Amino acid sequence: MRPAQWKLLIFVPILMLVGAGVTYWIQWSKLRAKWAEWVPERPPELTETNEELADWEEQIRTGDWSVLPTLAGWYRAQGQPTAALAAFETLRELDGDNGAWWLATAGLNAQQGERRLAGSQLQRARELGLPDGRSHAEAGRLSEVLGDQVEAKEDYRNAVAQNPALVPVWMRLIALYRAIGDNRAAREAFETALRENPGAPALLLDRARRFRERRNWRQALLDFERVRESHPELPEPWYASAQALFELDRYEEGRELLAARLAIDPQDRTALMLLCVEAIAKQDRAESDRLIQQMRDVVSISPREWARLEAAYRQTFNEAPPET
Predict the structure, then answer these.
(1) Residues 30, 32, 36: CA angle, nearest 5 degrees
(2) What's the helix, strand, coil split of the chain in %, to 5?
(3) Is the pTM of this model over 0.85?
């Protein structure tokens, strides 16, 4: 074998290996560049070192986009719609049959004023299917933002069908029924919601308020007291229960209830106002004067409230309330 021939036998495989390595390196570089495009540009105000954010970005640059939903959600929660939208749009490109990504981009586009685009993306999200009740609830809220209450009602119905524990969604659905005058549908939805969530404060308070509107004070008191006993941290049931007691001529019970509330928060302007108004209505001048003196240290009482209180006092006692 001539020298030139054996040299070729050695050089050709070597050159083939080198060529394959170059090709591999070129392809790898292209992949790295593509993966880097998946990372949304950081907003200028987030240039400070953030190890968690940096870790997410680095993981995505390796081709592992499993943390991209976390990153997208984080940007949205941080009030960074541009970065969040870029991340969710990438997710939609990578996993286009996932309705959740279409819903997310629809919401962000609506936030940025792209209502028509948001509407088409929301419809596509519904066509692909949404994963759970909360997603349907989000679709309903977006439908309302876009001015489509018919679609919103359907979204909310789907939400509570999948997750009957979503009390705020039930409340919104009931409100929509009432707004269009469909009282039967509202009543049926309320009854179903209360059956599924028998102790829900929002539902009990809603029923109590409606009893109060009809001046059915006994039924209203039952619901207000039930909420107050189970959720004493909520202020409204304290005030509403006291009002019902006053209307039922159970003055001392109402007074004791508000006194208990003031023991928790001596600066509770609403409790003081209710006590004072009731004392004036009963023409109890000594109690009215005492409460007015106590209220003068409560800075949250507005000038308008003071004006109304003074007018009631003058009308009842024929003179101005005490100054000091």
Answers:
(1) 115
(2) 75, 0, 25
(3) no
